[in-house]
Design brief:
Length: 205
């Protein structure tokens, strides 16, 4: 079962990337982003892409320029996540054959991102819009466009977001923070996966 969860590993170091990545994948989280404001992010992406590229989708977050897109691809990344919706970054990502997940807060940004070729949308910060705001946006967005809630969505409210139309989630410090061991990340990941699975089952009932 593939779960629509992106693990956001802000602050991860290359020397721990493979161990943390393995813990997440074993727990059932198979999409991982390394934000580019982490230490040596392209090294971490490269290590995880080499180790897990056949089992997981590895890429970068906080991608702001076309040059960064190219470096993500060169490192073996397959997904680009941004806090904003820059058409140049989206187009460069799509041209490089990678998934593009730009951050949006408004219908105007959402439609501009889709016109540029975005794979899906990252509702960010989700806490500022809330499930009610997502419901309103989903009423006008194309029904097949996946929207992931990031920043304010977690184990305690997955069900509420899913009912509002969220297709998935980006999870940061609830999964990983600098200093956590791989065992601690594994425990957190299992708890997140269990809550996600329960929410999905509840929504389908």
């Amino acid at each position: 079962m593939r779960r629509n969860i992106i693990a956001i590993l802000r602050g991860i170091r290359p020397q721990e990337a493979e161990e943390i990545g393995a813990a997440l994948i074993e727990a059932g989280i198979e999409t991982i982003e390394v934000p580019l404001n982490s230490p040596d992010p392209f090294d971490s992406i490269g290590r995880m892409a080499a180790a897990f590229g056949d089992r997981a989708t590895i890429g970068a977050g906080t991608v702001l320029t076309g040059d960064e897109v190219a470096r993500v691809r060169a490192a073996g990344g397959r997904i680009v996540v941004s806090p904003n919706a820059d058409p140049q970054v989206i187009r460069a990502t799509v041209a490089a054959g990678m998934e593009s997940w730009p951050g949006v807060m408004t219908p105007t940004e959402a439609f501009a991102a889709l016109q540029a070729g975005a794979t899906g949308l990252k509702l960010f910060p989700a806490s500022q819009i809330g499930p009610t705001g997502l419901t309103a946006m989903k009423a006008v967005l194309p029904p097949d466009v996946p929207v992931y809630a990031v920043g304010g969505a977690g184990a305690g409210n997955f069900g509420e977001w899913i009912k509002a139309g969220a297709a998935g989630f980006g999870i940061g410090t609830a999964l990983y923070a600098p200093g956590l061991t791989a065992g601690e990340v594994a425990d957190r990941a299992r708890a997140i996966v269990a809550a996600y699975d329960e929410a999905r089952e509840g929504a389908a009932a």
